[in-house]
Amino acid sequence: MRLVILITLATVATAYEFVEGEVTWNLDRIDQSKAVWPKWNPEVAEYDPIGTGTGSVVYILSTGIQGTHNNFGPGIVRQTVIYDFDPNNVPSGSDTDGRGTALTGVIGGLYTGVATDIEIATVRVSADPASANITYVLEGMQAVLDDYVMRKTANPTNYQRGVAIGSVSLDVSVDPAGAAALEDLVAQMVAEDLVIIGSVGESFQADCMNLTPARLYADNSIIIAGGIDGLDYKDPVSNAGECAEVWGPMQEIWSSAIDPNDNSRVDYYALTDHRLIFATAHVAGVAAVIRSYCPNTPSNLVGTMVIEYALANGGTALMPGTEEELGPVIRIATSKETPVCY
Ligand SMILES: *[C@@H]1O[C@H](CO)[C@@H](O)[C@H](O)[C@H]1NC(C)=O
Ligand SMILES: [Ca+2]
Ligand SMILES: [Ca+2]
C-alpha cells in the first residue's frame, strides 16, 4: 500500500516543474494540519502565512549563498555576509556548492521560502556540506554571536530578533572537544536570546543523545527537527527518538540552485538534495515569522510557541510500518489565525 503511494508521489513530482509564483508542496503542507499527498495539485496549493518575518534575521551556517537569484531579491538588500571560512573566496560568502543557496531559498526565498522578508545572514563554514571543519564551524558560530551582540548594543530595543540554523551534527564520542566547544557557543547564543534550530541527525538509528546539538533539545530556545516525506511518514534518512521535537518536509523540495552552465542566473530552480537540513529549514522560517510577530517574546518562549502550535495544529509524523506517532509536524499560523504571543 505504502509503496504504491510513494510511486504516485514520485511520478507527480517528476512531472512537476516549479515556476515563480506557484506554491511548492512543502509550503502548502506547513500551514495546515494534514498531508498534501498523495493527491497534491499545484493548481490549488495554498500557503497563507501570518507573516513574512520582517525585522528578523536568520543566520544560516552552510556553504554560502549565490545571491544573484530573483528568489533573494530584488537586489541584495536582504543579504549580509557574516563570515566566510575562506578569506580568498570572492565575493565573500559566495556558494561554490549549491547547498547553502538551496537552504536559504527554503528558509527565506521570495518564491520558495517560508519567511519571505527575513534578513539573510550568510555564514559560510564549508565548501562541501558533507565535511565541515569544526574549527570553521566554531569560528562561524562565534561570528554569529559577535554580530548579534553588536546589533543589540547598537539598538537595544529594536534590534532584529535572531534565529540561527546549521546542519552540523557531531558525534560526541568521536570529537568530545569539538562537541564541548560547540555546546559552549550554543549556550552563549541562547543566553543572548537567539533561537537555535538543529537536526536530529542522519546517522540511521543512532541514539540522538550521542549527537550534538540534538542532545540539547530540552532547552526551549533550541528546536531539534526530524524529517518527513509527503505523507507525513518519517523519511528513511532521518533519525527519530526523544530529541526530535518537531518534523518538517525534506524531499522533492524546489529551491534556488546553481546553474552549472550559467553561473550568474537569476531565476534557476531545481529539486534540492534529499537531506534532513531541508526539514530544519522550515522550522527556522517559522521561528523567524514568530520572532517578527512577537518581537517582545524571548527565545525560549518563541521555541515553546513553535512546538506548541505544531502540536495543536500541525498533524503528526508517523513511523513507516508501525504507524507509531513520532511528534508534531511543523505548522505556521495562517493569516486567518491569531496566535497569542507568550
Ligand atoms: C581545519 O582547519 C584548521 C585551521 O585552518 C587546520 O589547521 C586543520 O588542519 C583543519 N582540519 C582538517 C581536518 O582539515
Ligand atoms: Ca496549505
Ligand atoms: Ca527544545
UniProtKB/TrEMBL annotation:
Coiled coil: none annotated. Residues 53-301 form the Peptidase S8/S53 domain. Residues 1-15 form the signal peptide. InterPro entries: Peptidase_S8/S53_dom, Peptidase_S8/S53_dom_sf, Peptidase_S8_subtilisin-like, Peptidase_S8_subtilisin-rel. SUPFAM superfamilies: Subtilisin-like (SSF52743). The keyword Protease applies. Keywords: Hydrolase, Protease, Serine protease, Signal. Pfam families: Peptidase_S8 (PF00082). Belongs to the peptidase S8 family. PANTHER family: CEREVISIN-RELATED, PEPTIDASE S8. This is Cuticle-degrading serine protease-like. It comes from Saccoglossus kowalevskii (Acorn worm). The lineage of its organism: Eukaryota, Metazoa, Hemichordata, Enteropneusta, Harrimaniidae.
